[in-house]
Amino acid sequence: MSAENGKHPVYSNNDSSKVTLSNDEWKKVLPEDVFQVARLKGTERPYSSPLENIKDTGTYFCAVCGNPLFVSDTKFESGCGWPSFYQPVSKGSIIYKPDNTMGMERTEVECGRCNSHLGHVFDDGPPPTGLRYCINGVVLDFKKAQAAEKKFNEKGQ
Which member of 1, 10, 65, 143 has the lowest number of beta carbons within 10 Å of its beta carbon? Predict the structure, then answer.
């Protein structure tokens, strides 16, 4: 594979062009757990993602296509069992869709580049937005900020 991080060829943290692959094509390149959540709108078990407790400085990307989604400054501990953020990187990084499944009225959030299911957004978050993006950790990739990594390494740790 010739993509970033050894992922499939459409994975990129810099390319913002839309990705339109069929679920059959995605199934060939995605790990099963990522495919189940991202393409079949599944949900990972609460408190199962190692990304929920990460406090490092960096950026969270779509694990399916590499699209930048959230920065660590907007992450907060919501207690819901999934990584939570109060604001996406940009308006175009997220797509909002009504979700009336399971007898609830919710707003689903999808990746703005590849339309993969990420989770849901609720209006019970902290200031300044009052929003809580409750995101499945399995569909996120995290990259430490290079400046933070450099500072960490300079301390000899």
Answer: 1
**CATH, residue 93:** 2.170.150.20
Domain count, the chain: 1
Q: Which residues are catalytic?
A: 134
The residue range of the domain holding 132 is 4-145
pLDDT digits (tens, 9 = 90+) for 128-143: 999 999 999 999 999 9
Give the chain as a 3 state SS string.
CCCHHHCCCCCCCCCCCCCCCCHHHHHHHCCHHHHHHHCCCCCCCCCCCHHHHCCCCEEEEECCCCCEEEEHHHEECCCCCCCEECCCCCHHHEEEEEECHHHCCEEEEEECCCCCEEEEEECCCCCCCCCEEEECHHHEEEEECHHHHHHHHHCCC
The model's pLDDT over 11-55, given as tens digits with 9 standing for 90+, comes to: 999 888 999 899 999 999 999 999 999 999 999 999 999 999 899
**Would you place residue 151 in the very low, low, confident or very high pLDDT band (cuts 50, 70, 90)?**
very low
